[in-house]
Fold this protein.
Amino acid sequence: MTFLEVACDESGSDGENLIGGNTDVFAHAGVCVAEDAAAGALREIRERIRSPAEEYKANHLLREKHRAVLEWLLGPAGPLHGHASVHLTDKAYFVLTAVLDVLAGGPAAAATAAVLYREGRGTAEPSGWQAFLRAANDLVRRRNHEDGEAPVDAFYRALEALRPEPGGDGDPSGVLDMLRRARPRAEAFRARLAAEPGAVEPLDPLFPALERTVARWGEGGAPVHVVHDRQNTLTEERIARLGASLPPGRRLAGLRLAESRHDPRIQLADFLAGVARKLASDELAGRGDPVLTGLLRPYVDPLSVWGDDRSWSRLGPEPSATGPGPTPRQPAPMSVVTRCAVAAE
């Protein structure tokens, strides 16, 4: 049996605390290179950076004095070009999609979340918008709320406190009014969560990002075997469900957890995930570096979970990657990535 072996790592994980944590972007990278090639790339990076650190991380590459090394790593002459991908998650948008899935449901939930995201960022007073996002996060996360205000009460208090900035249009789309009417659904969701916590999937971008990574690398029909940096949330039960959740024609050959320091391919994935998270976060904040963002762009998954159109126009695939006139987050063929077939023992 022939399969693709993809080494994966992430950056920006805060568990279910997606708002107000350490990062506003989550990145999950997959690297498909041979171990000896990955080891050679690490030796080259060490030779270029010359830091005494025992294990290098993305922050070494992100230092201005090592910019040339970062440009080489991401560029056409580097070891990742054509052999890696990265899935990005805008955490605020991810939370809103989860909330709208609970309170609205159906195929229109994602589109409604995008409308709420744009209007909230564009018209709401910033501190009120952040308070609403935190309350939305708490509404759909699984942790127990034994202290403080009940999640449903806190969410609707934050919803009512949303005010447009001076000169804003209020609720032009009517999404906020729709959320007000959906309180019975919010109450039913929290009651179900209290009764059957295992029935609700954790509010964690890792699993959907991993699912998408496997699906993208498996677009040609070859099974995908994943070697992933150790993560407590990747339980045996969730790994078993991964194969069943893939789109038709995609197959999971297996998933093995490993320590990054023992696998140079995972270390390369760690570099890419950390760099991508930082560059994407900078773009989201409007302070992106056009050169570095341009180098990252070929790696970015077109189906990344991203709500901000301005930054996505710089991060997402160029029109030539998906044919004339693509819409954001439209699938692109994985043929832009060189496949690495590995013969199973």
Summary: DSSP finds 15 helices and six strands in the chain. The radius of gyration is 21 Å. Residues 320-339 have pLDDT under 50 and may be disordered.
